[in-house]
Amino acid sequence: MTSLTDRYVAATLRSVPVARRDEIAAELRASIDDMVEGRSADGRDTGVVEREVLTELGDPARLAARYADRRLQLIGPTYFLVWQRLLVTLLSIIPGLVGVIVALVEATVDDNIGGAVGTGVVAAFQTAVQIAFWVTVVFAVLERVGAPLDLPGWTVDDLPDAPADRDVPLSETCASVVMLLLTIGFLAWQHVQTQILTPDGDRLPILDEALWTSWLPFLIAVLVASIGLEVAKYRARRWTWRLVGVNALLDLAFAVPVIGLLLTDRLFNPEFVQRIEWVRDGDNLNVVARGVAVGVAAVTLWDLVDSAIKARRSAR
Amino acid sequence: MVSEEILRTHLQELRRGTVVVASLVALRRPDYGYALLQRLTAHGFPVDANTLYPLLRRLEEQGLLTSEWNTEESRPRKFYRVSAEGETVLDRLLDDLAAVQTSVTGLIEGVDR
């Protein structure tokens, strides 16, 4: 017989259980020959007909899977939901945790905050990839082996609560607005405060005065816009993806300049720093600045994740 | 008007189980793969070769078909025929097919258009 059929039969047999190979080979070959003979009875070129027949039989791997009664899927319906739930649970907790821990450890042994954050992000990403890979491998193996999981079946008691009519309670909005107002108030107060004075008895701003002509008005504008966002969120009754987007913009518009100013020593008033003995000592200013920067980054990150989780929940 | 795609999927679903019934009925008379394929097609059961050949093997493994190699003709061919067990299963399947037809008829008559 011609080589095309030989190659087709060989390709099909490659993934068929050894015990049945010879018989399947003989039968498949006979069937192909029958089909070619039947179709070239009207005088058509057997070469053309052979191609046609083999094309119709399709991908040898697919045909072999049908012979072996093997399903062509990585993770089938039996395991899919368990796999998905486990993966989502693990991915939503572990990579973030690992990333934060690695970044914190890195930040304490190395002076470079930016580098520490980068290392944390890389560690979180690598952890996520590892988790996704290994969980999927385990379930793919289970699918092939057909091992029963023996997990408790679904019952009506597993039903989640219906989404509340209002996800954003008034108390939460009020608390947020008050916090934002206090922050704005602090920015104004620190400029005119009289708790810590210069030796001459003059007031001593905590933050660098030069910022009033640059970043402080911008930060206050961002805070005012955040109050607007809280009101909009209350009116929308729940987190929407648009609110999540605006919230992310405002969060970053606040956190990025603050962290940048902290790390470049431009946030605090140098005179004020000089007045406080402990901060003045050794490397303490750097430690404080770095600690506050990590804190701001953590709070911002948490807010972004939290808003996305809530939006996803209420979108269901 | 529903798309061709949707219609095709539903027809495929409807036809899926009938290939087994048709094959078991046809193989009351022993036959080999390609000849069976042609008989089924001629009787209004168009079935793809890459579906039918593996199906025959599977039915044989389940004990519903028996097979025998025929080496008398120009090329050796594997002839399948329905087994006693296959005949029992076929009876049940045919009963059920008739029951489906009866139910559908009853439903159609019972529903005002």
TrEMBL record, chain A:
Keywords: Membrane, Transmembrane, Transmembrane helix. It holds the Pfam family HAAS. The chain crosses the membrane at residues 80-105, 117-142, 174-192, 212-232, 244-263, 287-305. It comes from the Bacteria. This is Uncharacterized protein. It comes from Micromonospora endolithica.
From TrEMBL, chain B:
Pfam families: PadR. Residues 27-91 form the Transcription regulator PadR N-terminal domain. SUPFAM superfamilies: Winged helix' DNA-binding domain. It comes from the Bacteria. This is PadR family transcriptional regulator.
